[in-house]
Amino acid sequence: MILTGIEDEDKWLAEGIASIRHNAFYMHRALEANNLRDALKCSALMLSELRTSKLSPHKYYDLYMRSFDELRKLEMFFKDESKHGVSIVDLYELVQHAGNIIPRLYLLCTVGSVYIKSKEAPARDVLKDLVEMCHGVQHPVRGLFLRTYLAQISRDKLLDLGSEYEGAKDTVMDAVEFVLQNFTEMNKLWVRMQHQGPVWVKEKLEKERSELCDLVGKNLHVLSQIEGVNLEIYRDTVLPRVLEQIVNCKDELAQCYLMDCIIQVFPDEYHLQTLETLLGACPQLQPTVDVKTVLSRLMARLSNYAASNADALPEFLQVEAFAKLSSAIGKVIETQVDMPIVGAIALYVSLLSFTLHVHPERLDYVDQVLGACVKKLSGKPKLEDIRAKKQIVALLSAPLEKYNDIVTALTLSNYPHVMDCLDDETNKVMAMVIIQSAMKNKTCISTADKVEVLFELIKGLIKDLDETAKDELDEEDFKEEQNSVARLIHMLYNDDSEEMLKIFWVVRKHIMAGGSQRLPFTVPPLIFSALRLVRKLQGQDGNVVGEEPVTPKKIFQLLNETIEALSSVSSPELALRLYLQCAEAANDCDLEPVAYEFFTRAFILYEEEVADSKAQVTALHLIIGALQRMNVFGVENRDTLTHKATGVIVLTYSIITVSCPCSFVPKTFTVSSFHLSFSFCQHSAKLLKKPDQCRAVYACSHLFWVDDQDGVKDGERVLLCLKRALRIANAAQQIANATRGCSGPVTLFVEILNKYLYFFEKGNPQITSGAIQGLIELITNEMQSDSTTPDPVSGAFLASTIRYIQFQKQKGGVMGEKFGPIKV
Question: Please, which domain of life does this record's source organism belong to (predicted)?
Answer without folding.
Answer: Eukaryota
